[in-house]
Structures are given as C-alpha cells and as structure tokens.
Amino acid sequence: MTSSLLINVKGIVQGVGFRPFVYRLAIHYGLNGWVLNSSKGVEIEIQGKREQIDAFLHELKHHPPPLAVIDTVEIREFQSPAHYDSFSILESRSDANEFIPISADISICDDCLTEMQNPADRRFRYPFINCTNCGPRFSIIKEIPYDRPKTTMADFQLCEDCLAEYSNPGDRRFHAQPVACPQCGPHVYLQKNGTTIAEKEDAIQLARAAIMEGQIIAIKGLGGYHIACDAKNTLALTKLRERKKRSDKPFALMAASIAVIKRYCHVSKTEEELLKSPQHPIVLLDRLPQNSLPKEIAPGQSTLGFMLPYTPLHVLLLDSSSDFTDLLIMTSGNLSEEPIAYSDDDALVRLSPMADLFLMHNRPIFMRVDDSVSREINGFESVLRRARGYAPAFLHFPFKSAPILAVGAGLKNTFCLTRDHQAFLSHHIGDLENYETLQSFEEGILHYEKLFRTSPKRIACDLHPDYLSTRYAVNRAENEQKPLLFVQHHHAHLAACLAENGWNDNRPVIGLLYDGTGMGSDGAIWGGEVFVGGFADFQRHYHLKYVPLVGGDLAVRKPARMALAYLWTNGYEWDSSFPCAQSLCMEDRTVIRSQLEKEINSPPTSSMGRLFDAVSAFLGVRQEVNYEGQAAIELENIVDHSERGCYPIEINVNEMDTKPLWGELIHDMQSGTALSIMAARFHNSIVQLSLSVSVNLRNLHGINTVALSGGVWQNKVLLTRTISLLQNNNFDVLWHKNIPANDGGVAYGQACIAAHSI
Ligand code: ZN
Ligand code: ZN
Ligand code: FE
Predict the structure, then answer these.
(1) How far apart, in whole angstroms, are the C-alpha atoms of residue 736 and residue 170?
(2) How far is the CA of 363 from the centre of ligand 2 (A)?
(3) CA separation, residue 307 to residues 280, 374, 478 (Å)
(4) pTM exceeds cut of 0.90
(5) Each residue of 43-53: pLDDT tens digit?
(6) Which ligand is closest to the CA of 153, given by its number?
(7) Which end of the chain is more exposed for a tag (fewer CB within 10 A), N or C?
(8) What 3-state class would DSSP assign to 338?
(9) If you measure from the C-alpha of residue 15 to the centroid of ligand 1, how many angstroms do you get, rounded to a whole number?
(10) Which of 334-343, 463-472, 733-742 has the lowest mean pLDDT?
(11) How far apart are CA 57 and CA 51, in angstroms?
C-alpha cells in the first residue's frame, strides 16, 4: 500500500542545500516524487510505503542541513493523479511578490576545510572555497531570487568542473551560488601604495611575513575590511592605536584555534560552542589572571573579545604550521567611529593612513556587515552586536499587522521591517552621527524592503526629535503619507525584551529599564526606569531621582561632571580630596557650580548609565571616556567578587533616591575602603534596589515577571547577580538573548509596539 503526501517546508530553506538534502533522503528511503523551490518555500511530493515516509519526515524535521531554519512543515495527504518511479529535483517556481528568507553569511564548514587542506583536492589552499553549507550569502546578494547572476559572483563564469558540481543534485555544491575554484573564481592579491606586488599564494605568504615584521595590514573579509597586526607585538599595537585614533577601546582578536584562546581566557562549554558556531561571532571571554598578552589590546578590561578564523582566507593566513603568530588583532577597518570600509576604492582611500599593505580580492562585497559580538549569560547566548552570521535571519513577530518599518534609535542603530509574522531586524548599522552611517542606514532600509518584498504601511520611531533616524522617519512618513508612531525609548526596550522571550499577549510585566539615554515622555532624559507595562502601554512606577546632566553631552564624555552633579544635588561638599574634583581645574569647577546653580545647559536626567559613570568617576576609576560605556565597564572590572555589602537607596513614592548611597560612598572613601570593595557594594546596591522595587510592584499588582532591558544590562556582574536574586525570590526573569539589550534591540521593540497601536 503506497501513500502520497504533499509537503511544504517554510523558513530559511533556500541556498542552504535543502533540495539535495531532500533528494538524498528520498533516495535513501526508496521514495519517489519530486522537490522544488517555490515562493511558498520548499515543496515536496513524496510517494512510497507509509513506514518509509514516516522515517523520511522524521529526518526532514529533525536533522535538516546545518544552515536551514525550518519555520513550519505543512503535510497534506492526497490522491496523486501521477505515479512516479523516481525522485527528482524540479525547476524553481517563483512569484515576483513572494520571497524566501535568505541566509546570513556563514563561516567555513568542516568539509570545505578538509578539502582546502588536502593537497590532492583541486581547491587545495583556495581562499574562496565554499559549499551549500558555508560561505558568503547576505553580503553578496543584490536581489532575489537568490541566484548567481543576482550576486556579486555574477561576473565569474563557472568552469566545467564547478558547473558539474553545481548541477549535480547529489553534490554538496548543488546550486551553491558562490561556488568557485582556482580556475574560475576570485583570487587574492597584495597591494602596496596602490600597486599589486603579489598574487594568490604569494600574496598570502608576503602578507604573513609583513605581519611578523610588525606591519599593519588591511584585509578584505566577508562583510568589510579588517585592520590586522600581530597581537603579541606591542610596537605594532601602539602604532595601530595611534593610526586608528583609538586610545582605549578594546581590539578584537582572531586566534588560530580554541587551544590558543584557552591559554588566555576561561572558555566554558557554551562559550566554546559559540566560538565554533556557524556564525563565528566575537565572543567576550573572561581573561585568565596570569596572562602574558600586551595590555594595549584591551586596556582596563577584564574580558577579551575572541573569534576563530571564519573565512578560508583567514584560515590560510593564520596557518600555524610554520613560524607564524597564532594571534592576530582583527579590528574593523575604519577610523574611530566611521562605518567599516567594504568597497575597495573606499578602503584604499580611508585605510591608507592606517595600513602598510592591503590584502584584497576581486569578489565584491555588496552589503557591509560588521563582526557580531556575543557572550554567554547563565548558559545562554546573549548577543551584544547582531551582524555577520545573524542578520538578516528573521525574528518571530507574533502579531497581526500591516508591514511596519521601525527605524530604531540614534546610537548602535538597527532598523526593523516586518512582514506577516516575521520581523527582519537589520544588521548593526552603527552610530547615526555622520553622513556615511546615515547613508548605510538609508540604503540598508531600501535593500531590505527589496529583498524581503515588503513595503511598510506604517512607520515607528523614537520620541527623540534629533535622532537622524527620527528625522528620516518623519520625512518619509510625510512624503509617503504614512502614519507615524513615536515610541518612548524605554517602552521599546521593554517590548523588545518581551517579544524575544516569546511574550505574545498584553499581560503587563515589571520592566527594569536601565539605560544610558532615552527621551522621556516628560521631555527629561530617562534611563533609570521601572515600568509596569506590556506592548500596548506602560506606567512609569519608579525612576532614579533626577539630577542635572551638567553641560549636556559634555557630562556624558566627562563622568567627573556627573559625580559633581550627584554630590551637589544631594548637598555634599566637593572635597578637594575626591578624585573627581581633582580631575577638573578650579575654573571648570566654578563654571560647573554656576551651571548647576543657575540651571544652565543642565537638563534633568534619571539615567542609570550616568549614575554608573558618576560612581566610576567618584572612585577615581575614570574621569573622561574615550568610548561609550567606558567608565561603567572599568568600574565593573574592578569589582571584588566576594564582597556582599551594599549601600542603601531610598524609595520615596515614585523616586529612587541615591542620597544615602552617596553618603556611605563618601564615608567609605574617607575611611580608605578599597576601591574594589566600594565598586562591589555599589553594584550590589543596584541589585538590591531591583529586588525591592520588584517586590513592591508584585505586592501592588500581583505581577511576577520581570524584564531586564537597556544598555546598562550589558554589565555582566549587575545582570547575573540581579537574575539570581530575583529568581531566588520566585520571580520569572526575562533578559535578552537573541537581540541586544542595548539600543541595537530598540527597533524590534518599536515594531512590536506599533503592531499594538492600531
Ligand atoms: Zn562548506
Ligand atoms: Zn571552477
Ligand atoms: Fe537605550
């Protein structure tokens, strides 16, 4: 007795080897029928014995190809008019209004790695080896359907051998669009002062020799250029910091193997899996106490950002079989806050002042994508920068709504487009503060709209009128006559955290929204916020008592000002023995005092980020920052992990008042308490405060779920201690995993709120 089934598989099932997988599976179980790609996903008709079909379905659902992400599998039994005596792969059917989600760029797979290292293989040491399980995707796709002519591989004609693999359903390279070999594919070359000085293997070897001599090399990667040098060469490191105009911000490292990383950092099982995952993100790892690496790599940090080689070219570069460093600095190819260079012309212009040599290749990058940054929190991944390897994979969007465009915030910008139950949260765009970044933001939105065949009917943006993203949204809504929704920044953070944790209805939760900056509904700068709310609305129950942000942006760059503002607000003297007072000259202090007294350029803020800054400055850890979050990060890094004490914070009606905390900090400071103890007590105070307000709200509203969102939660000490204290008190705690707690997640939250505001 034979049965016939029609199967429709949806999700990321195109360009990931799904059809050959189905083909091999069908052959294995002796089943007949066909498989094809259509606008609905992958469609299959299968005929054969019921038992075999069941086994086939089980394999299909549970062991799909590594890059496939199955969303749904619909199965329909039917009386097939046809009878098949074989299984075949049929021509794709496409529909101009439909789309198939496309895969992110994926690091080299084990099969390709083995081939590349086999002298008998025709792709031996070929830096562009790839297959349906690995290689470039999103960064080379110009248009869909995903076919070679619509990628930056269009100009490379497949040779006979490659074509044979490409056309053979049994081959790992069946319909692998970027397939290439030394005969027909791209190649690498090394340039100095605009002239090519070596090609192919010679280029790689010359680049390696230069690195060992302490030179700085620009290297073209998957989504953009890196600037690389030997991480163990202090002179090269110092030179790089000078040239890149980056004084303290940590550099990312690329290590030849896990074993190398373990020499310098503690690596848990989850962290090892993350490092080796198909995404190969930069993983933040705790530094081992006795480690010999130059401090110039990551000054003042207790963590290091490591990644493993993710393109074949990286593997060849870092080949440690001979006398070569096993550790490279691989920092993004840009000058301080600019976006990373990805086109060759742009790279040659912008990176020439930094790089002695350029290791380039002739496979164009269509979309700029930065390295992703991730880490482990309590056994789970928690992404801090979602880009290469992650975007443009869709997030679940469990709401009914016409397509939405949410434009995100100002710093660490991402945008989000929705279509049905899918949300396409963009890769990390960057800080929308210069023309280049604004341009990638605008181009990115248009590209996503085209790729995902969606045209927004409604637009959502931040309340802050001066964010360039808000201005874009306002203009576009006006030009296209589309409804525009302004979303309060921390409400968006809360919604993002709820949605990514699978929250799909309007039940309110307690939101602890600890953040740097976000425009409040009252016009003040919020950021130490305790909400009760859900997707549709929120109530602000508690907030840090306002203090003046004395000097506006200047107070963000100079935490010493925040410390003085906190002391002044709470009626404490600026004792000349305090490091924050010492760091500013007499004149500055006089100006600050008069700004405070006359309320000049001192908008009120409840920012938790600024409180961390103020304490960091007060303790003498950091008076002036060179990158966002530096003062708080350095404060976190000196915490004594065994200290359990904490300072009191008063909760008055709806204000959280740190006056008593400051009183005890001053007392500790004057009695010579160790900085590491004070830093620990401060962190513990915020953890304790989080519990107190949550308990109050549970008693008031009977709500037992607490969501943690906002940039301050990137602080691992604060995050892990708060989670465990809340859990020990029987709270359900939601925190960020797939999207960042920082402003990189705001766009997704805006979209969720927009879906509820009809
Ligand atoms: Zn592969
Ligand atoms: Zn070829
Ligand atoms: Fe924020």
Answers:
(1) 41
(2) 14
(3) 6, 10, 44
(4) yes
(5) 999 999 999 99
(6) 2
(7) N
(8) coil
(9) 12
(10) 334-343
(11) 10
